Amino acid sequence: MFKNAIHGFSTAWKGLSLTIRHLFASNAKRKITPISNDNYFKSLEGTNTIQYPKQQLPVPEVGRYQLEVEIDDCIVCDLCAKICPVDCIDIESIKATEAFGQTSDGSPKRIYAAKFDIDMAKCMYCGLCTIVCPTECIIMTNQYDRTVFELKDLTYGFSDMTPEDAAEKRALLDKQVAERQAAKLAAMNKKEGEA
Amino acid sequence: MNFYIKYLIVAIGLFAFSGFFALFGVYAERKVSAFIQDRLGPTETGKFGLLQTIADVIKLLIKESIIPAAADKLLFMLSPAIIFIAVYMGFAAIPWAPGIAPSNLNLGLYYIFAILSIETLGILMAGWGSNNKYSILGAMRSAAQIVSYEIPAGFAIIAVVMIAQTMNLQTIAAQQGIMSSEKASFLGIWNVSQYGGILAWNIFRAPHLIIAFVIYFIASLAESNRAPFDIPEAESELVAGFHTEFTGMRFAFVFLAEYSMMFLVSMVAVILFLGAWNTPLPNIGSVRLADWTTGAAWGIFWTALKVLALVGVQMWIRWTLPRLRVDQLMNLCWKVLTPLAFVCMLISGIWRLWVM
Fold first, then answer.
1. What percent of chain B has a predicted confidence (pLDDT) above 70?
2. Kind and range of the H or E element at A116?
3. DSSP state, residue A43
4. Which tens digits make up the pLDDT trace of B164-195?
């Protein structure tokens, strides 16, 4: 019993001396060092707290956090929306009547993106969309901090088309489709007439 | 009439003090725990986060007081008041300085020990009244723990009472310094009545009282439900134990009681073992340190200093030691502390008869 009691007291004292060392150790605020620093994994002196909005851990420039779309390079192939495991990408496409431009890697653009929304509240940062993108226009950036007051502000819109533009392109497409339909009908009628 | 006004003022003063101490204590506890764990603690509200607990209190005051539908409403509503009043009434008999005590009872120690036991009743009422299995488990653990630990604490106190031959706290306090009317001897051999200071404290007048002090201190941790004996409110098992269902003001009262209890048990320990309001500085020849640092104001200062030091040790222990299991708790109480307390009591008798 005495052995137990002595053991209890000595181990309790061990713990107590450890905590009192920490209590009276340096309470200096933490200095923020990037992971590239040689001393990054050294045991800390002073306190461990990062006072977040005032202090921020530097993240690598190639960090893979929030998504960003370079809409001028987008050919609106819809691959990203199809692969997305959580369906956070919402694209509305309008076919153009003809190729209307080129991306920076030379692919012809034939579809307008009337809507290109990414819901960051749903995004799980898997990065699959960046892998399938044929023109590499959807990328991940090193931005991770976005606080909003309205949930809908977390839906990022990347389309640069105004609703009027979209309506005009839609009308053009409808017209072209109607013309082609009429031409097709006429051709069929003619074929029937010959037969 | 003046008589009643005076006592009313004293009562309000003590209440204000316990409220102020709870504010300060919670802040200190958060800072101590933070520094022990290499964190910063509250920093945002006020300079160094000093206003944090005041903000917390305002939050608690304006929160809705919810009474669970299935609760026993009377018990539920009464229990926080009983828990707090039991502790608060204990302050009545505590001496702060020579001649300054809210009530100079000749059975003061007995009274404090009795009134503190009422807290168990309040805790049981809270647990039962909540009508919640976690709360009743916490309350039953608390009752078992407090009833068990009152035995070693009681015998440790009896060891002191046998040395002091009185239950009047003011007399016990006066015996441990230069204001003693009887002979005080260091370790029972060296007459230090003229020197006073730390040499005349009870733990040095009779060295076995050091063990009694440790026993009492451990038992007092258990009685105030503090870690490592906090199984009644074990967060990881019982949500918050007996005060799970309490919100707003009622929760604040439970919290106030806990911190007042910390202060009260430390104060009893200081009075019984660590020289009460007596100065730790002895007279050395013509340097009359003990004479210079004894008086009403000095008494309050020394009491507060010693008690706050003990409260600091309580916090230090809380943030170091892990919680004991129920069987370990009872093991410690019945197989280690109680026999040791009996031995202390026995030595006290021998000491009083043959040494003093």
1. 98
2. strand A111-119
3. P
4. 888 888 888 888 877 777 776 777 677 777 77
CA–CA gap between residue B13 and residue B6 (Å, rounded): 10
| pTM reported for the whole predicted model | 0.79
Q: Do A19 and B38 touch (CB under 8 A)?
A: no
Q: Decide if B327 touches A, using CB distance below 8 A.
A: no
Q: Does B35 touch chain A (CB under 8 A)?
A: yes
Q: How many angstroms separate the CA of residue A48 from the nearest CA in chain B?
A: 6
Cβ of A29 within 8 Å of Cβ of B36? The answer is: no
Domain A67-176 in CATH 3.30.70.3270: yes
- C-alpha to C-alpha distances, B32 to A19, B17, B48, B235, B312, nearest whole angstrom: 10, 21, 13, 20, 9
Q: Closest residue of B to A22, CA-based?
A: B36
Instruction: Answer yes or no: do A44 and B319 touch at CB < 8 A.
Output: no
Burial of residue A66 (CB within 10 Å: 0-12, 13-18, 19+) is middle
- Put simply, whether B286 touches A (Cβ < 8 Å) is no
Which amino acid, residue B136?
I
Q: CA of B175 to nearest chain A CA: how many angstroms apart?
A: 31
Residue type, B221: L
Q: Which candidate from A15, A19, A48 shows the least CB-CB separation from B39?
A: A48
Side chain identity at residue B182, one-letter code: E
pLDDT of residue B70: 84
From chain A residues 86-115, the ones with a CB under 8 A of any chain B CB are: none
Of A5, A19, A51, the CB nearest to B320: A19
Cβ of A49 within 8 Å of Cβ of B317? The answer is no
* SS3 call for B207: coil
**C-alpha span between B177 and B276 (Å, rounded):** 9
Separation CA B118–CA B136 (nearest Å): 17
Q: What is the pLDDT of residue A43?
A: 62
Nearest-Cα distance to chain A for B13, in Å, is 33
pLDDT in tens, B238-279: 777 788 888 888 888 888 888 888 899 999 999 888 888 888
pLDDT reported for residue A195: 67
Pick from A128-137, B167-176, B295-304, B321-330 the range whose average pLDDT is largest.
A128-137
Please indicate if any CB of chain B lies within 8 Å of the CB of A17.
Answer: no
Residue range A84-108, pLDDT digits in tens: 999 999 998 888 888 888 888 888 8
- Nearest CA to B173 among B155, B150, B196, B207? B196
Residues of chain A with pLDDT under 70: 43-44, 195
Contact of B64 with chain A, judged by CB distance below 8 Å, is answered with no
Q: Where are the domains of chain A?
A: 1-57, 67-176
